[in-house]
């Protein structure tokens, strides 16, 4: 039998290829690569959204989206697709139409960008346990399975957030550009999110997120279905820890990138901390911001007596 060049290269890979195949077979690099790739895709899409809404700077008044939409760049259909994907807004359209689907894509990108980095330590912890098991010759399920379960929970959250945004837009609490129009509404959201930071559910969930090793060690399995369920459970703990902070985006503007990055860092810091003290501090700050929103609004609308 004649051995092909491809078969010979697989049987005797070059040193560089051997290192590449070895990295792919290790759970920790797979876990890190998965988190970086998905979070990066989320931030790239959000950057395109911001560029579409603000114009960017690839030229005089031209952003990357505007450059792609140039007549000499892509076709009419391509320009229409870019407009749709990068300028989602429920506007006056039906909450159940195509626009809602595009807003769902936006929320999925937000959850990838904001939540996957906070889940990195948890996923890497599982991968390290799996790698240790693999070195001992024991079977270990890929961390990709765990990540699928975790991501599935946040995809569900993205769907709920889309419905909430549609309802808030219908009630005229958000404008078509996804910004809050009522300071009292923004204040109430901040105060509600701050109060949740002191709840027993919040503290139970953040504690679970801070200590993933005992959870994985106690529930270890070599069955993919069981690991998928572990990913779902960790996703639910993360959801219980972070959903209220994510709702703050409705108060500050859904596409406020500064707040996205800030909240993402806060949620990551909460999970890396060893106590719930930071959660309480964040709660006090949220309540103070909400109170300031409400006081400012009341003062602005306080009737001025005629002179």
Explain what you see.
- There is one protein chain.
- The chain is mostly helical and 307 residues long.
- It has one domain.
- 74% of the residues lie in helices and 0% in strands.
- The chain contains 13 helices and no strands.
- The longest helix is centred in the middle third of the chain and has 38 residues.
- The protein starts with a helix and ends in a 7-residue tail after the last helix.
Throw out a few tags for this protein.
mainly alpha; 13 helices; 307 residues
Q: Summed up, what is this model?
A:
The chain has 307 residues and is an all-alpha fold. 74% of the residues lie in helices and 0% in strands. It has one domain.
Q: What overall geometry do the principal axes of the alpha carbons give? A: elongated
Output the radius of gyration: 23 Å
Structural class: mainly alpha
Level of helix content?
over 70%
Distance between the termini: 105 Å
For the record, the count of structural domains works out to 1
* Largest sheet descriptor: none
Overall mean pLDDT: 78
Based on DSSP secondary structure assignment, what is the total number of beta strands?
0
**Count of alpha/pi helices:** 13
Contiguous runs where pLDDT drops below 50 for at least 5 residues = 6-11, 17-25, 56-95
* Strand residue content: under 5%
Q: Helix and strand succession?
A: HHHHHHHHHHHHH
């Amino acid at each position: 039998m004649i051995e092909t060049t491809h078969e010979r290269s697989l049987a005797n890979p070059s040193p560089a290829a051997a290192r590449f195949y070895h990295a792919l077979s290790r759970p920790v690099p797979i876990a890190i690569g998965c988190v970086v790739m998905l979070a990066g895709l989320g931030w790239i899409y959000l950057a395109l959204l911001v560029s579409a809404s603000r114009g960017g700077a690839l030229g005089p008044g031209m952003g990357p989206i505007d450059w792609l939409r140039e007549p000499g760049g892509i076709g009419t259909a391509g320009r229409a697709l870019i407009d749709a994907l990068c300028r989602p807004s429920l506007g006056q359209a039906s909450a159940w139409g195509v626009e809602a689907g595009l807003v769902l894509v936006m929320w999925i990108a937000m959850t990838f960008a904001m939540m996957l980095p906070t889940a990195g330590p948890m996923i890497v912890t599982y991968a390290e346990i799996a790698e240790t098991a693999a070195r001992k010759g024991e079977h270990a399920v890929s961390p990709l399975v765990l990540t699928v379960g975790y991501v599935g929970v946040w995809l569900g959250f993205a769907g709920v957030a889309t419905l909430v945004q549609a309802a808030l837009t219908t009630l005229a609490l958000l404008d078509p550009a996804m910004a809050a129009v009522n300071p009292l509404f923004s204040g109430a959201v901040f105060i509600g999110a701050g109060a949740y930071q002191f709840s027993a559910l919040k503290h139970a969930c953040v504690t679970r997120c801070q200590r993933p090793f005992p959870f994985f060690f106690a529930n270890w399995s070599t069955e993919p279905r069981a690991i998928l369920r572990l990913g779902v459970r960790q996703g639910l703990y993360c959801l219980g820890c972070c959903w209220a902070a994510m709702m703050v985006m409705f108060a500050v503007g859904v596409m406020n990138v500064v707040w996205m990055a800030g909240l993402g860092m806060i949620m990551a810091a909460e999970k890396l901390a060893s106590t719930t003290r930071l959660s309480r501090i964040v709660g006090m700050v949220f309540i103070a911001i909400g109170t300031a929103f409400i006081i400012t609004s009341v003062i602005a609308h306080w009737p001025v007596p005629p002179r």
